[in-house]
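Hello,

Our lab assistant flagged a job as stuck in the queue for most of the afternoon. It eventually completed. Since we weren't sure the result was trustworthy after the delay, we are filing this so someone can double-check. Below is the sequence as submitted and the structure that was eventually returned. Let us know if re-running is recommended.
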Amino acid sequence: MINRFLEAGKIVNTHGVNGEVKIQPWADSPNFVAGFKRLYIDGRPVELLSARVHKGCVIAALGGVSDFEGAIRLKNKTVYIDRGDVQLGEGRHFVADIAGLRALDVDTGEELGIVSDVLTLPANDVYVIVGEREMLIPAVPDFVREVNIESGYIKIRVIEGL
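-- returned structure --
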């Protein structure tokens, strides 16, 4: 099932006394989260009045939050985005859509397991596939030949030693 709203980060603290919050982004880049006009907290839309990146986090001014007391009430809240507000580039997918897909051998069609996790590493993401045995598959075109979110699978090229 594809969720409309996706976790984008967590409000980890306040910033200053004018109601700004510090968001720890759960995205490829803090600039991704800072680029939205609207975020969602507790199922409600919140206007993103301003946002800037600072030390890997997003310092944000949110609509309806104008003082320290309002900001502190948001601490530890998860921030969501609406997937309809995002245009992903070719071959790009949300991690939330990858986890849970069936992993199939591109040559044989054999089901190898389920993508149980996506590790975000400096060089590239790595898919953790749990089946008869656990496999770590680099999320690069040499290994991941097809991603089909709608049909619920990825096709991977299995090489000796994986």
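-- support follow-up --
The delay was a queue issue, not a problem with the job. The result is valid. The CA atoms of residues 48 and 84 lie 16 Å apart. The first helix runs from residue 30 to 34.
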